[in-house]
Amino acid sequence: MARVTRILSLVLILASVLTVALPVFAYLYRAPVTIAGSSTTSYDMLPVIWSQDNTWLASNGFMSSTAMDTRVQTLGGLNKPWMVADDKVLTAVPVATDSLTNLYFTTGESTASAMNIITGYGGYFTVADDAALEIGNNGAIRYDGYIDTGTSGTIWEKEEAINLTSNGAGDVEAGLIEGTTLSNTATTYERKMYTSSYTRVAQKLTLPAGVVTSVEYLMKKNGSPTGQAYCRMRKCSDDSVIGTFGAIDVATLTTSYVWYTFDTPVVNPVAQEVYITMEYSGGDSLNYLSTAYTTNTISGTGCYYIGTEWSTLSGDFTVKITYYWAVLAVTASVSSGTHEIEVELDGTDLNLYVDNELKDSSDLSGETVTDNSGSWVFYGGGVDSSGYINYIEIDVAGTTKARYQPTSVVHGTTYSTGTVTVTNGSAAVTGTDTIWTDSMEGSVFVSTDGKHYVVTSVTDNTHLELSANYAGATLSTQTYHLYPCLPNETTADTHVGAITWGANPAGVTVTVGGMTSSGQADVGGVSDTSTSDILPVVGGTDWRPDPGVSPALQTNPLRPIVVAVSDNTTLSEYQVWVLLGIVFVIFVTVLVGANVRGHHLITGIAASGAIILLVVWDIFPLLSLIVVVFAIWGGLVSERSPSL
Fold it and tell me: Among 200, 404, 400, which residue's Cα sits nearest to residue 302?
């Protein structure tokens, strides 16, 4: 019975080892990736990006042409969110201050069904306006991914129509948006601005809670004023600054009236009276900034500031103010993490679902999503795109018109050099001063009509073909842009996403080591000779091991098992080595002692041999040899003492 028990124990131990080890050895090729955290900033979830020639890897057989056999994994083989493009790889992981996160980029894995959508820190993708994507009062947008509700910002939006936002305090809000532009273009009078005279002018308005997206003032200079002028929003109640739309060097103004635009959006948090100001406190009576005004023609009241107080003007300033506000909103409390959030209009109500549970609902009362020319924009988890997306769906009248969840390499590149000639009704595009290459096939082409076309082929440096005939007007010497393409999985080359890549934030670096072959090694066996440096080392040295792990342990065939345990516990790699060493010594001691009853010296020698082996492997320090002496001495004494 004892022998059967020992055999079963050994079988269970072997099964446990194989359970941990087999996922580690499942790759075909892999490259170590180290993400170094900033000394000042931590990130609960950070999308990171690194350059990598995946087109070359696929062409030379190191991964499949779709990249669906690739993964980004922990050292223990756990998959992380990932996306592969022609020339880069992206993942998303928590990054603490002063930290090192060790990962692998692997190939030869089982074929995945889909990748994540990751655009990088500050990145996003846009989908052009189209009649087929107009929701009206019957449709839904489903967003599944990581959302940082501790950061305020927009998660996605149909510009100037509907959006989903985070308030930074644990809530998400979906709202229908309306907007308007107040415009006064008359120039009957002028107001001179300089030190000791008028230092601020403003249009005083009562605005709902919302956002002012742009302000334009008609201005000119007289003489040679210097310094900065600022366009701001202030509270009328206490004159505090709510936000700044922008600034301009007054020396760059012309001497005749020109419209100057300030377009940094400023949020008005509550319905209130505000000043939309132009402010300048430099110059003198001969060198000043001039703003125009006329009799009352728009909402609000013209005001000016002199000395320390505001006064009312008998007229309105020549200004254009564009602002938007939510006419209907639904809200839910959501913790930071991965969620499916659905915003639905069912013809009667605006509904907000979180993880398939209805959280809030509001009667539409005849409201609909505004039909406008604004694009769809998806940011991926807050204002800094601080996360990843699993998938996005846009439904109209019960039919899924667009689904974004890549099932292959993301193709295309970012490029805008030169100009183009486009012809209505033709798929051919001719470039001037362009250097188009085959790498641009699959890119999204965007020009004056604002629509998204996919580049199907590049004939030469100045000629390419689109997936559909150009629908805009025939024009020459037009600006254009190429973007990486996020496909619409429901209909090829239709409603595609144009990706604008983000960048790793300051202080966060990514180092990629050389790619090597796994050789499909067995546990404890000898692996095939590695094929090194398939990928170049980018930005520095190779993967950094945990402190205390000697070079001998780094090449130990048991290391994949150890790092798997370390990566999925709070123990460091060296601590796992020591813990397993202790378990090994105890196992050897008990096993030998149970089989040579009464021969304690043999048991002591066996335990000593185990300890010496661990010292040779650099797991136990040299001081452990003292234990060897005591183990042999203790075994000898106990064997020679009948009472023991």
Answer: 200
Smallest CA-to-CA distance from 89 within 340, 406, 457, 393 is with 406
Domain 185-317 = CATH 2.60.120: yes
Q: Mention every residue, 6+ apart, whose C-beta is less than 8 A from residue 606.
A: 588, 589, 592
- Please choose, from the candidates 223, 240, 222, the residue with its C-alpha nearest in 3D space to the C-alpha of residue 232: 240
Q: Mean pLDDT across the stretch 426-434? A: 96
* Cα separations in angstroms, 256 against 126, 261, 267, 291, 422: 38, 16, 32, 11, 36
Nearest of 254, 286, 283, 308 to residue 194 by alpha carbon: 283
Mean of pLDDT values over 202-209? 93
Three-state DSSP class for 426?
coil
Cβ–Cβ < 8 Å for 17, 85: no
pLDDT (tens digit per residue) in 298-310? 788 999 999 889 9
- Please give the CATH topology (third level) of the domain spanning 28-118+506-544: Immunoglobulin-like (2.60.40)
Class at the top of the CATH hierarchy for domain 127-177+328-404: mainly beta
Closest CA to 606 of 595, 617, 620, 619: 595
What would the two tokens of residue 17 be? 């080892």
Domain positions in the chain: 28-118+506-544, 127-177+328-404, 185-317, 419-483
525 has pLDDT over 70: no
What's at 170, amino acid-wise?
A: G
- Answer yes or no: same fold for 127-177+328-404 and 185-317: yes
Tokens representing residue 257 in the block = 């009236």
Tell me which residue of 409, 422, 413 sits closest to 480, measured CA to CA: 422
